[in-house]
Automatic annotation (TrEMBL):
It holds the Pfam family WD40_RLD. This is CLUMA_CG011711, isoform A. Residues 1-29, 447-507 are annotated as: Disordered. The keyword Repeat applies. It comes from Clunio marinus. GO terms for cellular component: cytoplasm. RCC repeats lie at residues 51-102, 103-154, 155-206, 272-322, 323-373, 374-427.
Length: 526
């Protein structure tokens, strides 16, 4: 009986539900239009500026593109006469990239983990500029400690080499190191790239930001601390597969990206607010430090009116829309350009003496600024001659670079690596006539511009001895196809972890021998 009643109830309910609805005479309310921040950023064209390459700093593994048997160091910018028609330059930790006006990329320096993107089986071939084989023309390049990347004119991003974390090499992808270029984000069309020491940042045409690589300091902006070591159930898969930066329930829509050695910054399209994540032990993110040294997800910074941004391991500088420069972070070695200051800077401070600035860039403990008329100012650590001033003195306030090769010439761009710097300088007619074009038959245009400046890293303070002593201490030992550079360093600071953390600074009374093995992460001293 109960079963029959239940069946009847179900039938009745079914009948009620199936009854036709009465049509309403009222017009339906219009659907709510969801407003979204939709943008489409165009793929950049290859810069038409063209110039010659000047180099300075250490050449122990051929990162200056000069013969290591003849040249171990350049204290002032010197011409690499074999290269011309250059559109841009980028210096990695111990390697260099050159982008030509024809969209080709040439590389030289250390290739232990594939950062050159080409075969270097022939003895000595890593120190000589050679072309990388690519499936198209490149419009942008970037370089980290052990990896390199480029953006092609159709929006594809190719990378090669390897990322590293505190345990050693992570590989470039889940398959390991890549000694030739591989397509890293096939599903997107990119418009910009930026490299930190061991991470790569990609901006797509729709404003989405992807990150890949080491995330130990939070620089990926999308990975929880538990996953950062790669020891979770998924291993390094999350780190080495490009992932999009989230914003609450959606994704960030950005119109600009920047990468510093251990940080990432993006500028939100709608508000133009700058967000940052990564290492913040000296307030270099521009956010309140609090009790955390790492920020693993995007936080809005105090930076406003930002035109460009650059940074080193422990400092950040910004260029505002009124062409002024501001700095924040660690004070040591003069990297902030604020002169002699008693303590680290936790709020943006104006760098005086700089006007009409067009570009900025940073090394790990040094900074550069280029004016609209092509003059370059340098400041910060100079222990490896990376500032190009002719000596190894640190510079506490912006100093105009005025050596013979750059005086009265138009500097277009600068990039600095571990202990070397690359300058792109406008080529005068006499120089252009003597230069040998890189597979290009068009002579160098004397009125074209040179590429932007990049900075130099600072983990180790080099000794202040005479040039003969320095050259003897920097002898290169060849081990198979790998080069290990041995340099003697008198360290003013106590050894610290990879983030530069220690309880206090204590001068050391003994010389410390530091062996640089290719792209091995250098310990930061504080």
């Amino acid at each position: 009986m109960a079963k029959a009643k239940a069946q009847k109830a179900k039938t009745e309910v079914k009948e009620v539900v199936s009854e036709p609805k009465v049509e309403s005479s009222k017009e339906p309310a219009p659907a709510k239009i969801r407003r979204t921040n939709i943008i489409e950023i165009p793929i950049p064209s290859l810069s038409q500026q063209s110039g010659n390459l000047l180099v300075c700093g250490q050449n122990d593994v051929g990162q200056l593109g000069l013969n290591t048997d003849d040249v171990m160091e350049k204290t002032r910018p010197s011409l690499v006469s074999e290269l011309s028609n250059i559109s841009d330059v980028k210096a990695g930790g111990m390697h260099s990239l050159v982008l030509t006006k024809g969209g080709e990329i040439w590389s030289f320096g250390c290739n232990d983990e594939g950062a050159l993107g080409r075969d270097t089986e022939e003895e000595g071939s890593e120190t000589k500029p050679k072309k990388i084989e690519l499936p198209g023309k490149a419009v942008k390049i970037s370089a980290g400690d052990s990896h390199s990347a480029c953006l092609l004119d159709d929006g594809r991003v190719y990378a090669w080499g390897a990322f590293r974390d505190s345990h050693g090499s992570m590989g470039l992808t889940t398959e390991g190191n890549k000694k030739s270029p591989v397509h890293v984000v096939p599903e997107v069309v990119a418009v910009d790239i930026a490299s930190g020491n061991d991470h790569l940042v990609i901006l797509t045409k729709n404003g989405h930001v992807y990150t890949i690589g080491c995330g130990e300091q939070g620089q990926l902006g999308r990975v929880s601390p538990r996953t950062l070591t790669g020891e979770s159930r998924r291993g390094k898969t999350t780190l080495l597969n490009p992932g999009c930066i989230p914003k609450k329930a959606g994704k960030f829509i950005a119109n600009a990206i920047w990468a510093t050695p251990f940080c990432t910054f993006l500028r939100e399209n709608k508000s133009n607010n700058v967000y940052g994540f990564g290492l913040n032990n000296y307030c270099q993110l521009g956010v309140k430090k609090g009790g955390k040294e790492f920020e693993h997800f995007p936080l809005m910074t105090k930076f406003s009116d930002v035109k460009a941004l650059a940074g080193g391991q422990h400092h950040t500088i910004i260029l505002t829309n009124d062409n002024k420069v501001y700095a924040i972070g660690r004070k040591d070695y003069g990297r902030l350009g604020l002169g002699s200051v008693e303590s680290d800077i936790k709020e943006l401070a104006h760098v005086k003496g700089l006007t009409d600035i067009h570009q900025i860039t940073c090394g790990e403990a040094s900074s550069f600024a280029i004016t609209n008329n092509g003059k370059v100012y340098v400041w910060g650590m100079g222990s490896s001659s990376q500032l190009g001033t002719g000596d190894e003195d640190d510079v506490e306030s912006p100093k105009l670079l005025a050596s013979a090769q750059v005086k009265d010439k138009n500097i277009l761009s600068v990039s600095s690596g571990g202990q070397h710097s690359l300058f792109l300088v406008e080529a005068p007619g006499s120089t252009a006539a003597k230069s040998v074009a890189i597979k290009e038959t068009v002579p160098v245009n004397a009125q074209n511009e040179d590429p932007p400046i990049t900075t130099i890293p600072e983990p180790v303070k080099a000794p202040r001895g005479n040039s003969k002593e320095k050259k003897e201490s920097a002898k290169v030992v060849k081990a198979g196809n790998k080069k290990k550079a041995l340099s003697v360093v008198k360290d003013k600071e106590s050894t610290t972890d990879v983030n530069g953390n220690s309880e206090k600074d204590e001068p050391m009374d003994v010389d410390v021998a530091v062996t640089k093995v290719a792209r091995k992460r250098k310990a930061i001293h504080q």
